[in-house]
Amino acid sequence: MRKLLYVDSSYSLSQVRSRGLGHVLRMRFLDGYFDRVWSAHPVDTHPALDPDIGPSGKPFCERISDDHVFVRGRYGRFPLLAHVAPLNALLGLGSFVAGLVRLVRREKIKVIRAGDPLMCGLIGLIVSRMTGARLVVRINGDHDMIRASSGSAIMPSLFRFVAIEKLIERLVLTRAHCIVAPSRNYGDFAVRKGADRDRVVIVRYGNLIDPIHFEEPEARGLPVDEALTEELRARPWMVHVGRLHSMKHATDCYDVLLKLARDDHVTGLLLIGDGPLREEMTRRAEADGLSERVRFLGNIDQRLIAQVLPLCTIALSPLTGRALAEVALAALPIIAYDLDWQGEVVETDVTGVLVPARNTVDMSRAAAWLLADASLRRTLGAEARRRAYELLEPEEQTRREIEAYRNLGVLE
Fold this sequence. Notes:
Rossmann fold
């Protein structure tokens, strides 16, 4: 029986349920390759979504199905130590790790998958060293590029300093038995940290994307909310999908809207996702008289995202991961910064327009150009969908990932 411990902090269990992200959990079985999976989130409590679950206490398990258990960690170990947050968080993580060590030993789990080379990678490394299980680490971003842009650590509340994060990344990636990277530049990031290139496997986002995004755009149906459909049909919309966070340069999308509005373009900006920049962008839109042309949909489920995207006109992608694939699969022409893996999907005059990073002037010009030419948008959008499907084909990514696990030599 093949068993997997999957340590990941991308989504809490309640977020998976509220956003219709069940595919994220199902794909961990890799089409039946694994017989049993334990998913583990180090800090899996959310006050708004889990009001009955306290932020402090012992980690606990919730059964998803007969073959899938979710291990839910907390922000702290003891409620009485809530006023000493750093110590309480450290005790909480210690309790979480100790529980995983007992789980791996009891269930004789041979492989641990970590969703990033920082917190989850460090947890996975500790459990791996204490149990003998193989460690597979996924690269979730070019952290050096993000830190250079933001000037701060990726997880400042946990590690505080960039130097500490870099030390942990090197520690984890030089000791992992396999490294899974969704793009070439992410694989290069791992090698720069000292990883053996022979241990790096490219497995793209394809099998992480909800299957509904691979459906033809016209076959997805319309949103149940008829008022939303009519609103999106009333004017051309530029759409951005992703966290409203400074490291994602989300406010650059508003800068593009403002430049177009000043040139008398009637387009609007649709924002799918949420984050700390939402309040700032709302205030700016009110001050500039553009509130009616900025629409925040927040964190919506995958079906609604897939239905909304084809109603938009173009996509803006300052810096996105899976979301770049989702807008491409919706056959939208894309204007993207030449950052990260985006140049693998976006090619000027072929699938959209690739512009220099943080250059909102060029992004605005490209948007004005595409908004004025419906025939060109259709041509570029169709090619964007074809390229994304060819690059990310889910079955091929699953095959590559299974091969990586087989090469560990402990599951057959």
